[in-house]
Amino acid sequence: MSTSAPIRAQGPGRPKDMEKRAAILASAKALFISNAFAGTSMDAVAADAGVSKHTVYSHFGDKDNLFREVIRSRIQDLLPEETYRFDPDADIRETLLRVALTHAHLDCNAETAGTFRAILSDCRQGNPRYGKLIWEEGAARTHELMERLLQQAVDAGRLQIEDVPRASAQFLTLIKGNLMMRQMFGCTDCPESYLREIEATARAGVDTFLRAFLPR
Fold it and tell me: What global pTM score does this model have?
């Protein structure tokens, strides 16, 4: 008689459920970018993902929650918490440069510009929810993580900052200059030179920030 434990069957539908959830998120992301929040319906998301509308609602509840999950997933993929890791033994310039280059390349790319165009479209139509959800899951999260990094650097004596939240906002502005606006307005005729300028601007922003906040 065999003494091995019986193999338990996996619950029905689990792998397919996760596949459907991923398909819904992928379709919702594409539709929200192309049609904005107001122009994207749960019916359209379901049709694009190849699932029923009931399946979309069973996974995400409503359109606001679906959008929040899309933004949260996207931001965590592109800007994982590890990006804002502070190592007291590392060169503070290299730490800030890691954050700067990651942010600058993300904020100034064409897909991000498309997302912000969609936000502006919804705001003009009197629907600020799209922008608020992006702010809560995107900018508010990254500002909080950046503030934490800067405060850790201050506590370790690597930086001298009186107003950490303000310094965080200044840092995230310095590293991209006007390049994000240029992308939004389509003023990036040469992709190669634009990419070089993104990197140069991020590096210059870090240098400017350190001149202001390195301990005297």
Answer: 0.69
